[in-house]
Structures are given as C-alpha cells and as structure tokens.
Write a structure and sequence with these properties.
Helix content: 40-55%
Strand order of the largest sheet: 1-2-3-7-6-8-9-10-11
Oligomer: single chain
Strand content: 5-15%
Number of helices: 18
Shape: elongated
Order of helices and strands: EEHEEEEHHHEHHHHHHHEHHEHHHEHEH
C-alpha cells in the first residue's frame, strides 16, 4: 500500500494556508527543527515553522481498512499569521511548562463535519461522486463547481478563523438503497453526457453550415450532406452513438480518478471492462456480421453492460465490507478534535481554548452527540469545557424526527429498530441527562425552505436547551434549502448571510 503524502500550499492572495490529507489517527512527532526539514515536508508558509513541532507530512499512511478517499483524514485551513519565524519571541509566543505554544493573536478554530445521512459524503465532496462509494458524473461536476466542502474551510480562513474539514467512516446502506443509487447515478451520468454530446453535435452542424459557403473542401461537404440527408430511421442511430460515447467518456473520468477506487475491491475490473466489452463486440461482429444499425445498438448495450456491471460490483462489494456504527463516527470526530488540539498547542497556529464544532445535517448530529455524551470525550482525555461553541446547520437532533416509513428505511436502518437505542443516540434526549455546567453555546440554523420535520426538530431542540439554562441562538437563513446551506459559504470573496452569522458567533465566544 503506497503512502499518502499530505500537501501544503499557501495562497497569499487569499491570505490562508491549506494543509491537506492529514491523518488524525497518527500522533504528532515530538520535535522537528529547521527550514530544510520544512522544505522537505513541502511547507511554504514560514509561520508554520517553529522550534517545537510540525506534523510529518511525508509519512502519512492510510489505515488498512480505509478506502481510496481515506476517511481518517482532515484538511486544515489556517489564516496566514503576521508573525514571521524571525519575529517569534517571548512577546508574541508564550511557552508553557509542557512545551505548548500560544500566540497572542492566534485565531479560533472551527471543526466542520459534513452531512450525507451518515452513509454518504467526504470532506472533498466531489471525490465521493467518483469513488468506490458512488459514480455520478452530474453530481461530481456540480460539487466540483461549488468546491464543496472546501468552500467552508476557505470561507472561515479568509475571515481570520482557522477551520478543519474532516472525513469520517460511513455506515453501510441497505441493499435496495444501494441498487437505487446505482440506477440513479447511471441515469444522471448518462443524461448529462448525452446532453453534452448532443450540444457538441449541434454546434458542429451549425459550424459546418456556416463554413460550407466559405469552402470547397470535399470532406466538409460530405459530412454536411450526410447530416442533412439522414432519414428518420438513420436518426435513431444517434441514440446508441450517444450512449456509447457517454460510456466511453465515463470510463475516461473513472480512469483519471482511479486512485479513489484504488483501495476498494477489484478496481482493475473497472479498467478492464471497456477492453473486454470491445473484444466481445468484435467477436459478435465477426460471427454474426450484423447491419450497421444493429451493430451500433449491440455495441452500446455490450459496452454499457460491462462498464456498469463492473461499477456495481465494485461499489456493492466495497460498501458491504463496512461494519461501522454511529458510535464509531462520533469517536472519529472526537479523535480529530484531539489531534487538532494537540497540533494547536504545539504550533500556536490557533487558540485551543476557542474550539467550535460545526456540522451539517448528520454531521450536526455527530457533533452534538460528542458534546452531550461524556463517554466519547473521556476516551480521548478531553473535557466538555474544551468545546466553546456548536454550530448546527439543519441538523438532526432527534432521530425520532426521521421515523417516517420511507425515510426510516433509507437513513435509520443502520441504527436498528430499538426505540431506546434511538433515544440514546438523540442529542435532544441527552440534554436532560447532562449535569455539567460547562456546556458550550449553541447556534442552531435552519433553512427557510427546509423540510418541516427538520424545522420542528430545530425549534424543539432550542426550547429544550433554553429550558435547561443553556445559551442557544436560533437563525433561519432566507432563500435556502436543506441541501443548499453548505453552498451558502461562498468560495469567492462575497459574504453571505449565513457566513456573517457564523463569523459573529465564533468571534463572540
């Protein structure tokens, strides 16, 4: 298994540094010295270099159980501090007896946990859509355009707040849900590519129409005549052509992102699917010698069958190897917080006394569980007082709110049918069991056009928090939905309403 190198880049125009692919299960080294070692570790921002500790970015390895996306890693977005290495002194850095470092102007830290119904998603969401978990080109392009969830880390860091975006192990879906997702992903991918190919063909036809009066090139004339004179029966051949080309395009996308399938079962089966399909078609063509139209249809059917079957086998064999539980997801979030606190104490890159947890949908459920259930914090020697704030974006605070028959089968199947188990894993239930006074402040956010049960869940949760004397603020974001809330964190320099609310909350702690 090849090691995964953590990379670092500093974008001075954006005024923040990104440390990517950090394995939060790997402990920090005791000491790293000098700029030479820093250059070897690909660190460009000199403010990350000090005489105490720096994470060894060259030896991060994925665990044997992790997939091609490495669910035990995080990306860390750090505002570029104005303190240079040469200026690090007692006036700007406080050295404690345990070799911890604190900068006088260190920013707070926000730890963001993505949503996805506990069984989908990644910190770099577009990679999830071309991986052993799913193969959906339409969502891949959509999420890559919005830069989800990197836009959240960039947004906080651009405004002087450190932010870590983490991945965590996913739960196993039911069989029929997996089959449904395979079918919808195939339809969405094929539809997108067919539309794009059709637009290209129309553009080519218009281009030929425009070029024809200006040229006497024989080939262009013949292509133009072929398109214009095609009868209705021949036009049906466009369908298998588009299907064939779409499958070949999908194969190219997968080949370029095969690293996301690398640690899944039989990724080479996907790469061999197209050559095998073409060989099968050539044998069929040689034996039967079909007509032009029949051969096109058979090529499209054989190619689609081999490629989609390979994708389905890879995905189904991979997801059904998972034996994770919700408790394991919370433990992973807790482990990332522990790693980040250790990193902050030893580098002074952010204030470890101002850690805020943030999550969307299922991610909000996990961070609330972490705060209310002492078991997870005690396992990593942390206290509830280490968390200063909670930002819950359209979160699940009571699992019973998802108890509708269809929704329950889709999302709550991994939790089992035991009502007491659902209550134990519901933050709204755990509020009344907490006797500690060291409880963080809460910012509960709902979308204006959110699902009704999510809105009711949020208002009930806020009322219960206030009933037990906790500080809770409730906000509704206008012109937003449950799925669009993470996109409200703009990836450019615009500031949205949600950003302003979150920035004010974090900086006011």
């Amino acid at each position: 298994m090849k090691p995964t190198t953590c990379t670092s880049r500093s974008d001075m125009s954006e005024n923040f540094t990104v440390l990517q692919n950090i394995d939060y299960h790997k402990p920090l080294p005791d000491e790293v010295h000098g700029r030479k070692e820093a250059r070897y570790m690909h660190i460009k921002d000199v403010s990350l270099i000090n005489n105490h500790v720096l994470h060894n970015f060259t030896e991060n390895k994925r665990s044997k159980s992790s997939d091609g996306l490495a669910k035990d890693q995080l990306d860390l977005y750090l505002p570029n501090m104005k303190v240079k290495q040469s200026a690090l002194s007692s006036s700007t850095v406080i050295k404690s007896s345990d070799n911890n470092v604190k900068s006088s102007d260190a920013p707070p830290l926000v730890v963001f946990v993505h949503g996805g119904g506990w069984r989908r998603g990644d910190r770099q969401q577009w990679k999830y859509c071309l991986s052993s978990y799913d193969t959906n080109l339409m969502l891949f392009i959509l999420f890559r355009f919005h830069n989800l969830y990197q836009n959240i880390g960039k947004s906080f860091a651009r405004n002087g707040i450190a932010c870590a975006v983490i991945s965590y192990p996913l739960l196993q879906p039911t069989l029929w849900v997996t089959l449904f997702e395979l079918f919808t992903s195939f339809c969405m991918s094929t539809l997108l590519l067919t539309i794009l190919l059709t637009l290209v063909m129309l553009f080519f036809q218009l281009l030929l129409t425009w070029c024809l009066p200006l040229t006497n090139i024989y080939i262009i004339n013949q292509i133009y005549i072929f398109i214009i004179q095609m009868n209705s029966l021949q036009r049906l051949h466009i369908l298998p052509i588009c299907l064939t080309l779409s499958q070949l395009a999908m194969y190219c996308f997968i080949s370029l992102n095969i690293s996301n399938y690398r640690n899944g079962p039989h990724p080479n089966g996907i790469l061999l699917s197209v050559p095998t399909a073409l060989s099968t078609f050539l044998i069929y063509f040689y034996i039967t010698q079909p007509t032009f139209g029949t051969s096109l249809w058979m090529l499209s059917v054989i190619l689609t069958g081999f490629l989609q079957t390979s994708i389905a086998i890879n995905q189904m064999m991979f997801v059904y190897k998972s034996d994770n539980r919700c408790e394991d997801q919370v433990k992973s979030v807790a482990k990332s917080v522990q790693w980040l606190k250790s990193f902050g104490q030893k580098t002074g890159q952010f204030d470890t006394d101002k850690i805020v947890l943030s999550g969307h949908s299922a991610g909000a459920h996990l961070i609330n569980l972490l705060v209310w259930d002492d078991i997870y914090l005690k396992d990593i020697q942390l206290d509830r007082s280490d968390i200063k704030g909670i930002i819950s974006l359209s979160g699940v605070h009571n699992l019973h709110s998802l108890s509708f028959p269809l929704i329950r089968q889709i999302y709550l199947a991994p939790f089992g049918k035991d009502i007491k188990a659902l209550e134990k894993l519901s933050p709204a239930t755990l509020v009344s069991n907490c006797k500690s006074e060291k409880v963080p402040q809460f910012l509960i956010v709902s979308a204006e056009h959110d699902y009704d049960f999510f809105k009711k869940d949020a208002t009930d949760y806020v009322e219960k928090l206030k009933t037990f004397g906790h500080v809770a603020k409730y906000e509704i974001i206008p012109n937003s939905t449950h799925l669009s809330l993470p996109w409200a964190f703009a990836s450019d320099k615009r500031t949205t309403t949600l950003e302003e609310i979150c920035f004010c909350f974090v900086k006011g702690l």
